[in-house]
Amino acid sequence: MVDAVERLNVLLTQEDVSYRTLDYLGRLRHLANEELASAGEPMDSDASSPPSPKKRKGADGEYTEVNAQGERCRGPPTSVINKHWREKICEWAYQVVDHFQLQREVVSIAMNHLDRYLADYPFTVDKNKFQLLAMTCLYLSIKLNVYKHLLIPGSKSTMDSILQLSRGFFTLTEMEEMENDILQRLQWHVHPPSPQAFVKHFLYLIGIEDTELLDVSQFMVELSIMDYYFVDYKSSEVAIASIMNALQRRSPNDKDKAPIHDEYYPNLMGPVPRSLFDYDTSKVRECRDRLHLIFMQANGHVPAAAEEGDRTPRKAESDAIRTTSPVSVMTPMS
């Protein structure tokens, strides 16, 4: 028990010091509006229309469209990223790992890389860069956590396989450069404690051995990974919320109700310090409310809160609408 507590304390410290994710879409929208203003174009409150690419003459005498950072553009101007793009790319990543029969935790780690990179990136990000970034983050997560090469017909390496999923839109050099940029920007902190890892540690510490409870908790975690709402929450908070909601679902009378936030399991912790598993904080409560909503929607049910006075905020309800999974990473995003 002592060793398990020490390991959990290490994970919690890593989470606070090196692996926190923060909201970045608001800042990116602000940057996009600044670029619009400097270009003399109308500002968009949703930043859905960034500055048009400009043409730059290359060494070969040809003119190529470039964005504000001087990066080559492909195709027509595209909007800056939004939460729906992130959800689609995350769902695509789950499809990739399922196809290769990998642990789905790989996607959680990849999205942590992506979110921390974008939180630190000082420029606007268009669809092209976002998709290259997402593909490279997934590749990096696979390389660091899966001990085998992922090969598809015609590919020579895992990176080559991931590139082929872009239908030739990106080159090997571009992906290698992006990988190096990710590692430098993240300062080589590429082993985040995932919500899945916290779920396993918490369940072990509180002495619950229940495969169904673990599966439901992990499913809720996977839903949270797709939802930008949780970017500003710690992995440990999401894990605790997932476990508490899964525990509530064991009760036939309460499983479809909105989360019960009182001392629902007063004897839950036993000898484990409350500081390691505090399930009654405001952050955990918010996570539980959101997880309940998207869990019910994912299973095709109307949340019980809607029938009991709408205890769940309407903003959370409107933001949690699911989107269709893309077939390819290059599927148009609107």
UniProtKB/TrEMBL annotation:
<feature type="compositionally biased region" description="Basic and acidic residues">
    <location>
        <begin position="308"/>
        <end position="320"/>
    </location>
</feature>
<dbReference type="InterPro" id="IPR036915">
    <property type="entry name" value="Cyclin-like_sf"/>
</dbReference>
<dbReference type="InterPro" id="IPR039361">
    <property type="entry name" value="Cyclin"/>
</dbReference>
<dbReference type="Pfam" id="PF02984">
    <property type="entry name" value="Cyclin_C"/>
</dbReference>
<dbReference type="InterPro" id="IPR006671">
    <property type="entry name" value="Cyclin_N"/>
</dbReference>
<feature type="domain" description="Cyclin C-terminal">
    <location>
        <begin position="193"/>
        <end position="327"/>
    </location>
</feature>
<dbReference type="Pfam" id="PF00134">
    <property type="entry name" value="Cyclin_N"/>
</dbReference>
<keyword id="KW-0195">Cyclin</keyword>
<feature type="region of interest" description="Disordered">
    <location>
        <begin position="304"/>
        <end position="334"/>
    </location>
</feature>
<comment type="similarity">
    <text>Belongs to the cyclin family.</text>
</comment>
<feature type="domain" description="Cyclin-like">
    <location>
        <begin position="91"/>
        <end position="184"/>
    </location>
</feature>
<feature type="compositionally biased region" description="Polar residues">
    <location>
        <begin position="321"/>
        <end position="334"/>
    </location>
</feature>
<dbReference type="InterPro" id="IPR013763">
    <property type="entry name" value="Cyclin-like_dom"/>
</dbReference>
<feature type="region of interest" description="Disordered">
    <location>
        <begin position="36"/>
        <end position="77"/>
    </location>
</feature>
<dbReference type="InterPro" id="IPR004367">
    <property type="entry name" value="Cyclin_C-dom"/>
</dbReference>
<protein>
    <recommendedName>
        <fullName>Cyclin-like domain-containing protein</fullName>
    </recommendedName>
</protein>
